[in-house]
Amino acid sequence: MCRWLAYSGSPMLLDAVLYQPEHSLIDQSLHARMGVESTNGDGFGIGWYSTDGDGTPAVFRDIGPAWNNRNLRELASHVRSPLFFAHVRASTGSAIQQTNCHPFRHGRWLWMHNGSITDFHRLQRDLCMAVDPALFPCIEGSTDSEVMFYLAVTFGLDQDPPGAVARMAGLVERLGKEHGVADPLQMTVAVSEGERVWAFRYSSQGRSRSLYYSSRAETVRQLYPELPYLRSVSDETRLVVSEPLGDLPGVWNELPEASYVVVPSDGPEDYLPFIPELP
To answer: Which residues does the UniProt record annotate as the domain Glutamine amidotransferase type-2 (predicted)?
Structure first.
């Protein structure tokens, strides 16, 4: 499978999140603790939004491992962003090529995924036929993750991100049932349009891959007032990660099964239930 993180909040150097933490994403690319594989070296990608751009994110992806990529290290030490995605890949069978590396981009949207569609080769044609014909030429790679993205775009990602992802999941499960595929969907997904991050944890089997979100910044400040970097981040600053980046008690919270989180939050709830819908 894969490991990923999403950051939203005060503009920050990518290096501070990708490299500096004790169990950073770069460390997870070699020593994942909670993934199916401990090594995630089949490519990587980052996507980020700038404070003075046109709203379209920049993307940098490569097929080599993240842990020894000099260009990634160079970018991370110079790019500062208020919202960015990062992903390290362990292929589930699709080719190791740049177009299969996450995050995927369409217009202002970024998307990344950990998990799989079971027996994707059996469902692929029907899933692709459900993609808006105007969007189909945008699919560049061969992964189930990218098809899931364009299904969500087809089902109204611009208007209703949680609903669009729910309809994508509902279609996968319906087609899985029609083709005799048990437990077709396994996913942790992050998606953003540059203002918010939506992150989902769901599987047909009810045993989803790991996903955590950070506690609210004011809570962490109260727990650890001695940490200097907490003084410079906004109250809205939060992370969603496949694995905690460190072991400080009270900082990381497991996202429950069949739920999703929105950053910045819509209200007092940290997370909301996620239920697939038929499109």
So the answer is: 2-266
For residues 23 and 16, the answer to whether their CB atoms sit within 8 Å is: no
Q: Using one digit for the tens of pLDDT, what is the confidence trace for 196-227?
A: 999 999 999 999 999 999 999 999 999 998 88
pLDDT at position 80 is: 97
If you search the block for the tokens 């992802």, which residue do you land on? 165
Sign of the C-alpha dihedral computed for residues 9, 14, 15 and 18 taken in this order = positive
Residue linked to tokens 């217009």: 107
Q: Are the C-beta atoms of 191 and 109 separated by less than 8 Å?
A: yes
Q: Please list the helix, strand and coil fractions of the chain in percent, rounded to the nearest 5, in that order.
A: 30, 30, 45
Distance (Å, whole) CA 178 – CA 51: 46
Q: Do 250 and 213 meet the contact criterion of CB atoms below 8 Å apart?
A: no
Number of other CB atoms surrounding residue 161 within 10 Å: 21
**Cα–Cα–Cα angle for 89, 95, 98, rounded to 5 degrees:** 65
φ and ψ at residue 21, rounded to 5 degrees: -65, 160
Instruction: Please state, in angstroms and rounded to a whole number, the distance separating the CA atoms of residues 4 and 263.
Output: 16
Which stretches of the chain score pLDDT less than 50?
none
Helix H or strand E segment including 248: none
Cβ neighbours for 168, distance < 8 A, ≥ 6 positions apart: 148, 151, 152, 155, 279
Q: Cα separation of 219 and 177, whole Å?
A: 44
- Give the span between the Cα atoms of 19 and 22, in whole angstroms: 8
Q: What residue has token string 């650890």?
A: 224
